[in-house]
Structure formats: structure tokens, C-alpha cells
Specification:
By secondary structure, this protein is an alpha/beta fold. The chain folds into 2 domains: 4-173 and 377-395, 3-Layer(aba) Sandwich (Rossmann fold); 182-375, Rossmann fold (3-Layer(aba) Sandwich). Helices cover 40% and strands 17% of the residues. The chain has 14 helices and 14 strands. Strands 3-4-2-1-5-6-7-8 form an 8-stranded mixed sheet, with helices on both faces. Strands 11-10-9-12-13-14 form a 6-stranded parallel sheet, with helices on both faces. Strand 10 (237-242), helix 8 (254-268) and strand 11 (272-276) form a beta-alpha-beta unit. The longest helix has 18 residues, at 358-375. The two termini are 18 Å apart.
Length: 396
Amino acid sequence: MKKITVAHLLPNYNPFPPLYPAGTELRVEQISVRQQRYRPVVICGAFGDQPLTEDRDGMRIRRIRIGKIYRRLFQKITRLDPMPYTARMWDIISEENAALLHLHNEPKLLSGLARRIERQPMPVIVHIANEKPVIPDNTPLVTRWVACSRFMAEWLKNSYAIPEADIRVIYTGVDTLDRKPLWEMEPAYRRKLRQDFGVEDDNAVVMLFAGRIVREKGVAELLDTFRIVRSRSKIPIYLLVAGNVRETNDPKNEKTIYGRAMVKRMEQEEGVRWIGSLPPQDVHNFLLAGDIFILPSIWNDPFPTVMLEAAAAGLPILGSAKGGIIEFLKGCPGEPLIKEPEKPETWSGHIEKLICDPNLRQQAGHWLRRRVEESFDWSRVTDECEYLYDEIMGAS
């Protein structure tokens, strides 16, 4: 039997497959390579010399390349784009005979596709992983909404009056088969990893952060906290920070200004090691070099993928009591959820408790590893998506 084609639609600003840790692109990749009953076609932007059409690992990738001259003339200067990204996307949807559209974390794509979907109706899923605005006039076009956490499901209901029956909560996943926890690693291997990141002292306790270097992720608050904890600790402690800084030519871009300021501060802060952005395949080794993972978000973080990756590495996690972080860490041994995360003093006692108690670190790490093994494998994510496709296509 011929498989129904699902078009996974991505915005044009991130490369696919992901070249750096990016939750949305990672999710699309891991779902697509595991789909069994449906034919996945990923439609995305083209970067560098990437081929426009590529078949790999059971999925087809169709890329859209928009040249620099075209972009400058029609998208920046005149704003009269005769062939916008979504129009090109629709041409590929038609060429590939897609019968179901799965939009990933960019609701504005729906605006560009709206008239075409009205003329040629087909089922549409919009997958929401953060609080990006949705145009209310477009909501009738959506067959089902997928929220990355219960927190995001409530946001859809409260912000846009989306009925509960039209929302599915599908948590993201992590690969536990190919990622061993730290207690299964040879001590010499782990020691080498730590040395590679500038930690020479075998007795040191290493704190980790990985994520975008932006204000809402609480990087400044984390550095303030680390300074307090380090000044009081009798044990050598380090903080390793991995992540990307928004790069732009706009000198007034707030995210770029903040990111560069944090990098400058980290380079001057004693005990802090600024690692920079890591490719996805290097993230697990980075995590294995640590002892405690910190999620200091000062916003309602919907459900950060790195939280699952840290759990897969067997690390104890301290996280802000905000957004979807609560849904994952609730019930973990110790006191992993930090209220008022914007205040550094609220973190210090929790961190010091883990620093001084290796048994608690181990207990929390084992609990979190079991949690991702049992409930957050990528095969589960794929199954839940395909069950949703079955439901929609059976009813369409």
C-alpha cells in the first residue's frame, strides 16, 4: 500500500538537519527517520551548498534556496516578494503529493499558506513549542494543535480559545540507546573529557549550562549564583557554559548585545569556562563532563530539550519552577525546582546541597535517567505523531 505523504514544514532560518542544538529541527529529524506508516518530506530553507533535494535515512528533504540578490531586492528593499517562501513551499507540497501538513513551531507559515489551503483544503497540524503569536483568523484552518507540554496546551486554550479536544500534548524525546549515563563511562574517559574542557582537578564539582545565551535563559543570574557558591565552597567548583550567541549586523539587537556581554563576563569570571556553540553530536560528551546541570530560566520555558539530554546523561538537574520544566522535574529526589529563579540567593542553598552530597546527586541522576528511558524515547514521540495522523486521516 502506498504511504500517505506528510509534509513537515520548517521556517527558512535554521539549517536542516540541525547543525547546532535546536529543539524543533532535532524533533523533526528524529520523527522523520523513525516514521513507518507515513512518508515524511521535510521542506526547509537551503544553506550553503546543501542540495535542494536529498533522500537520507528514510526521509526526503526538499530545500528552498533564495539568493542574496533576490532577498535584498524583494524582501528587504521593496518588500514586494513575488515568490515568497510559503509560495515555493506550496509548490513542493503539490509536487510531493502531500496529503497532510505538519507545521513546526512557526505559526506565521500558516498565514502565507492560508489562501492556498482554503482553495485546496487538507488537514493541518500546527506544532507549538513556544509562545509565538498565532493569527486568530487562521485558527479555523488548523485540524489539530500539538503542544510540547501541558503548559503550552493551557497557553493555547487561554490565549486563543482553542478547544481542549483539538489539542494534543506530545512531549519531545531523547535518544537513550546511544547515550550512556555517566556511571557507565570509564573513569579515564570522563577524566579526559573534563580536562578537554579545562577542568584538571579530579575532585572538582562541575556545574553545566547549555542553551541560547539570551536574557530569558537566566545566564546573568546563573553567573551571579556561581560567584556566590564558589566564594563559600570548600570544594573546587567550575561552571561550563555551552551555547550560541545571536549574531547580527544590527548594533542595536538586544539579544546580540546581551550575548556578547555575557561571553565577555564569562571569559573574565574565575572558574567559568565558556565553551561556545556545540554541534549536536558533541552535546552528550559535554554533559558527561559535568556533575550538576542547571536550568536557570527566568521565563516560562515551555519544555527545553536539553533538560532531557541532561537526564539521559544521568545528571541531577536543578531547574526553575516555571513552564514545562515543572512537568518533567516534579517528583525527582531532592528539591530540584527553584522558585523565584531571578534571585541568585534562591539557588545557592540547593546547589550547595548537591555539591556536598554525591549520594543525592547519584540518586537524582538515576531517577531522571529512568524517567527518560521509560517515557521520553523518540520512538514514543513518533508513535504519538503517527497515531494522531491516523486519527486525522481516518476522519478526513
